[in-house]
Design a protein that fits this description.
The structure is a single chain. The N and C termini lie close together (about 10 Å). The longest helix is centred in the middle third of the chain and has 32 residues. The protein has about 130 residues and is of the alpha+beta class. The chain is built from four helices and three strands, in the order αβββααα. Helix 3 runs antiparallel to helix 4. Strands 1-3-2 form a three-stranded mixed beta sheet. It has one domain. The structure holds zinc ion. Zinc ion binds next to helix 3 and helix 4.
Length: about 130
């Protein structure tokens, strides 16, 4: 992971209103086969780890840009996820919560991706060769 790539991620984060977040990139992460990337956010903190799997490297520059915008968007939506995850398991009980969360998570992914695909078009592409 080059300095230029990390600067590019920082530029995207700044343009997306995440200047005050601590974003860590983890390359060559051990992710499931079809998974390009994953974002892990520290509970109650403005800190995230974005893990990039082997599939990310195979993406086009435009694909990498859309994926990175998608993962960064998770930072903005993490508070909603925290509220759901911190309050509903006790209220609903495990089986109902798991069923609810599957649908909630899918809805969040679809919504985040719809925004990411369009927003990414106005963002810079990653550095050449990355
Ligand atoms: Zn996602």
């Amino acid at each position: 992971m080059s300095e230029d790539f990390l600067k590019w991620v920082g530029k995207l984060a700044a343009r997306m209103g995440l200047r005050d977040w601590d974003i860590t990139i983890i390359a060559n992460a051990d992710l499931p086969d079809s998974c390009l990337a994953r974002c892990r956010i520290a509970l109650g903190r403005k800190a995230a780890e974005i893990m990039l799997g082997a599939e990310f490297d195979k993406e086009s520059a435009e694909g990498k840009r859309a994926t990175m915008v998608h993962e960064l968007l998770h930072c903005h939506f993490s508070r909603a996820d925290e509220v759901v995850d911190e309050t509903l398991p006790d209220l609903l009980g495990d089986p109902v919560y798991k069923t609810f969360y599957t649908g909630f998570n899918l809805a969040m992914e679809v919504s985040i991706d719809a925004v990411a695909v369009e927003w990414a078009k106005s963002m810079p592409l990653p550095p050449e060769g990355e």
